[in-house]
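From the methods appendix. Each design record in this collection lists the tokenized structure first, followed by the designed amino acid sequence. Records were kept in a plain field format so they could be parsed without special tools. The example shown here is representative of the layout used throughout.

RECORD:
FOLD TOKENS (205 positions):
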């Protein structure tokens, strides 16, 4: 059954990896919740079963072609650091074959894994995109609905620590959400020494 799943998909010059649909957040602006949809462009990213590492590797294509992609991005409708061991195994495989690796994350990897995972990521990840999503905890909780207490503080700490291990780090927030101050979010990112990306509501991928 899992062999038919969309475990890898392409957008532009990048190849994306659909590792999990489990998440530490229930963001109300995520299509999974706002539209009951797992669709990105023409791709259905539903994952009724947990894909194995070898299944994902098989869909990545010929390793000799990895350097032809701009980057390989861990990004689906879940949080990739919830499957840290397979994430690291796949990322090392890509790096060992000349590919560039990026992770799109909610920044809660240290909290859920109960340790600093950034040194491990730094060995096989070229770039991190971290969802900051709000300028304070109350707005963050309103829109992201975290399962774990103290999630916003954990995201801020993750953003601050990330540049010590990974050179290319970007924090992002979605413009168009009630109460979200994009300028304030950008100031937070810059103060922590990372880049900032303004995302647009309802545009995925």
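DESIGN:
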């Amino acid at each position: 059954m899992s062999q038919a799943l969309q475990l890898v998909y392409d957008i532009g010059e990048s190849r994306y990896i659909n590792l999990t649909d489990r998440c530490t957040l229930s963001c109300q602006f995520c299509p999974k919740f706002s539209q009951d949809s797992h669709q990105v462009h023409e791709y259905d990213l539903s994952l009724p079963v947990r894909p194995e590492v070898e299944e994902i590797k098989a869909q990545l294509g010929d390793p000799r072609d990895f350097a032809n992609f701009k980057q390989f991005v861990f990004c689906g409708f879940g949080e990739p650091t919830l499957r840290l061991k397979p994430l690291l195994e796949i990322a090392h495989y890509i790096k060992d074959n000349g590919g560039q690796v990026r992770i799109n994350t909610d920044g809660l990897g240290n909290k859920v894994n109960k340790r600093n995972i950034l040194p491990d990521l730094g060995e096989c990840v070229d770039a991190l995109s971290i969802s900051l999503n709000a300028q304070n905890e109350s707005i963050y909780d309103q829109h992201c609905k975290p399962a774990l207490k103290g999630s916003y503080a954990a995201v801020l700490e993750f953003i601050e620590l990330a540049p010590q291990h990974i050179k290319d780090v970007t924090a992002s927030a979605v413009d168009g959400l009630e109460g979200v101050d994009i300028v304030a979010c950008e100031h937070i990112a810059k103060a922590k020494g990372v880049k900032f990306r303004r995302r647009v509501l309802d545009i995925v991928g």
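APPENDIX NOTE: The first strand starts at residue 8 and ends at 11.
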